[in-house]
């Protein structure tokens, strides 16, 4: 009796084992989105971490807008990750306080892509560049305009 219970249990575990395997690490193309904020007048720094090596090619618009579309090119991609390049996935900053960056979206399903799109809560100035590790895109973001009473507004110089 005991032998049949043990053998039944082992047989059940053997049948269920293939279905209980862990998923690979980094299922998507994007790994993480970090936004670093400083003092009131300092720009935000956004870092989009990728699970695959990528190369920054270009971005549009050049300096200012409510969103920016960054054209990237995947470098060496394994056969397992190649299928993910046609997907679309989004990440939002994990901060509780308000940031200029609302969302980062990897768009592999668009002609001419893949693209990484950054959407802002309002019109912003930005500078985009490649991370030194080829697994990140960095963006330095600041508001395109400040309120008239903002301490961040540069002082008005009167030339007389």
Largest beta-sheet characterization: 8 strands, antiparallel
Question: What gap, in angstroms, lies between the N and C termini?
Answer: 104 Å
SS element count, helices: 2
Globally, the shape reads globular
- Report the average pLDDT across residues: 81
Structural class: mainly beta
Total strands: the figure is 8
- Give Rg in angstroms: 23 Å
Helix content: 10-25%
Topology as H/E string? HEEEEHEEEE
The oligomeric state is single chain
| Portion in strands | 35-45%
pLDDT under 50 segments (min length 5)? 17-25
Question: How is the topology of this model organized?
Answer:
Blueprint: H1 2-16, E1 30-36, E2 44-50, E3 54-60, E4 64-74, H2 79-82, E5 88-91, E6 101-107, E7 115-130, E8 136-143
Antiparallel strand pairs: 1-2, 2-8, 3-4, 4-7, 5-6, 6-7, 7-8
Description:
By secondary structure, the chain is mostly beta strands. The protein has 2 helices and 8 strands, in the order H-E-E-E-E-H-E-E-E-E. The chain has helices spanning 2-16, 79-82; strands at residues 30-36, 44-50, 54-60, 64-74, 88-91, 101-107, 115-130, 136-143. Strands 1, 2, 3, 4, 5, 6, 7 and 8 form an 8-stranded antiparallel sheet that branches. The model is unreliable at 17-25 (pLDDT under 50).
Short description:
With 160 residues, this protein is mainly beta. It has helices at 2-16, 79-82, and strands at residues 30-36, 44-50, 54-60, 64-74, 88-91, 101-107, 115-130, 136-143.
List keywords for this structure.
8-stranded antiparallel β-sheet, 12% helix, mainly beta, globular, 2 helices, 160 residues
């Amino acid at each position: 009796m005991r032998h049949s219970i043990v053998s039944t249990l082992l047989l059940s575990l053997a049948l269920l084992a293939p279905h209980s395997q862990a998923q690979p690490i980094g299922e998507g193309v994007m790994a993480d989105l970090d936004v670093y904020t400083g003092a009131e007048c300092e720009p935000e720094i956004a870092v989009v971490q990728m699970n695959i090596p990528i190369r920054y090619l270009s971005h549009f618009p050049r300096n200012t807008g409510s969103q920016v579309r960054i054209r990237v090119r995947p470098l060496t991609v394994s056969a397992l990750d190649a299928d993910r390049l046609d997907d679309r996935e989004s990440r939002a900053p994990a901060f509780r306080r308000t940031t200029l960056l609302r969302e980062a979206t990897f768009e592999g399903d668009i002609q001419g892509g893949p693209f990484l799109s950054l959407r802002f809560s309002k019109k912003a100035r930005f500078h985009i560049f490649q991370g030194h590790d080829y697994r990140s895109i960095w963006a330095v973001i600041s508001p395109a305009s400040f309120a008239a009473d903002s301490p961040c507004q540069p002082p008005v110089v009167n030339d007389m």
